[in-house]
Structure formats: C-alpha cells, structure tokens
Amino acid sequence: MRLLLLAPPGAGKGTQGQRLAARFRVRHIAAGDLLRAEAQAGGPLGREIAAHQARGDLVPDQIVLDVLTPAVVEAAARGGYILDGFPRTLPQATAAAELGARLGVTLHAVVYLHAPGEVLTRRLLDRASQAGRADDRADVIRHRLEVFAETTGPLVPYYTQRGILITVDADQPPESVTADIQAGLSRLSLSPPGSR
Ligand code: ADP
Q1: Within 43-137, where are the H helices?
Q2: Are the C-beta atoms of residues 124 and 136 closer than 8 Å to each other?
Q3: Could you say which DSSP state residue 55 is in?
Q4: In a designed cystine with 159, which of 67, 108, 110, 150 is the match (CB 3.0 to 4.6 A)?
C-alpha cells in the first residue's frame, strides 16, 4: 500500500498515519518528524530547517527531497508507506511522481482530510498547551494554515485529476475518521490485509 495523507495542520494526519500504517503493516513516514530530527541533529542544514519550521514556513523543496527520498525509496522496497505531509507542494509532487514512475511505485491513493479553520486552530492551541512544539503559537498557526491553503491546496485538484483522491471529514472522533478513510479506500478496491 502506498498512500499519501494530505491535510492542513491540526487535521490529525499524524494520528491517522500511525493507525493506517499499523493496519496496512507499512512504514509511517512523517515529513515534519524527519525534518525536526534533522533540525535537532544541528549543523548548517539543521539550523536552516529549524528556522523555516519555527516560522511556520515550508522547508525548501530541494532540502525536503534530499531528506525524504531515502526513506521513501527504502519503504517502497519493503511493501509501501503512509506518507504524512510529503509531498506538500506541486514541485514536490512532480518530483515524487517522477521518482515513483522510475521505481515502479506510484501512489495508490491520496486521502484529503479537511476540517473548518476554527476547529484546526483550536486543536493546535490545545496541543500547544501539552506538547510545546515551537510552531504551535497563535500567530505561527495562522501562518501555517495560510501556507497550506496557498501552497498545498493546489495538490487537491492535482490528485483529483489523477482519480486517486479520497476526501474525508476530519471534524469527527479519530475512530470515525479512520472508518471513513477505510470506506473510501475500499471504494478504490484498496483494503488492509486479512479484512476480506
Ligand atoms: P503540521 O502539518 O501540523 O504543520 P508537520 O509536522 O507535518 O505539522 O510539519 C511541520 C513543519 O515542517 C511545517 O510547517 C514545515 O515547516 C515543515 N514541513 C513538513 N513537511 C514539509 C514538506 N513536505 N515540505 C516543506 N516543509 C515541510
């Protein structure tokens, strides 16, 4: 199974990504986590990534591709992946599609999780009071939601045109979101092992 979760900040792609990875027995590749790990490791590259993340700006495409590609290629060889947050721009999507075509591992489905802006903001502010991520601050959250609308939003028509987009309402309890994703996947004839 090769799946992409496309969702604005706060829609629950991390939670759904973990659940789907366990269900389909594939790796969960969270772009934000891999980039945060690289930032933690320090050095000039780490500092550049950390600066973009702290502002709520996207990390430049070439850096993202350099960090993500090895994980994607390795997981593809081991049965697939749930991609969480990559690709997030049209140039990333094009680069990922070219790589996938070259390796014979194109995406089976793209799940678009959507929820109203107020719901996303409230969830992120709740998380801020618990987890303390540097980018979970009211002003940075607003900026991240704008960046999503402008830069990642165009991926919705891009994948719709390719006939692999499943749209799911993320303003529901996590179990219901998972159930709706699974229903959407079975409409595309994609079901977890042992479920039929
Ligand atoms: P969220 O979706 O809540 O913003 P993530 O952990 O997915 O959380 O992403 C956090 C930050 O990591 C983003 O604001 C951005 O700076 C960076 N990032 C993650 N994925 C990408 C990507 N595919 N391209 C560019 N930047 C990314």
Answers
A1: 43-55, 61-77, 90-103, 117-131
A2: yes
A3: H
A4: 110
**CB-based contact 91:64 (threshold 8 Å):** no
Phi, psi for residue 27 in degrees, rounded to 5: -75, 140
Measured CA to CA, the distance from residue 13 to residue 150 in angstroms comes to 19
Per DSSP, 10 falls in state T
| CA dihedral (134, 87, 195, 180) positive or negative | positive
Mean pLDDT of the chain: 94
Cis (ω within 30 of 0) for the bond into 173? Answer: no
Does the Cβ of 32 fall within 6 Å of ligand 1? Answer: yes
Helix (H) or strand (E) holding 33: helix 31-40
Q: How far apart are CA 154 and CA 51, in angstroms?
A: 25
Closest CA to ligand 1's atom 2: 9
Tell me the CA–centroid distance for residue 147 and ligand 1, in Å: 10
**Length, in residues, of the chain:** 196
Mapped onto helix, strand or coil, the DSSP state of residue 12 is coil
Q: What is the pLDDT of residues 162-173, one digit of tens each?
A: 999 999 999 999
Instruction: Judge whether 169 and 120 are in contact, CB under 8 Å.
Output: no
pTM exceeding 0.85: yes
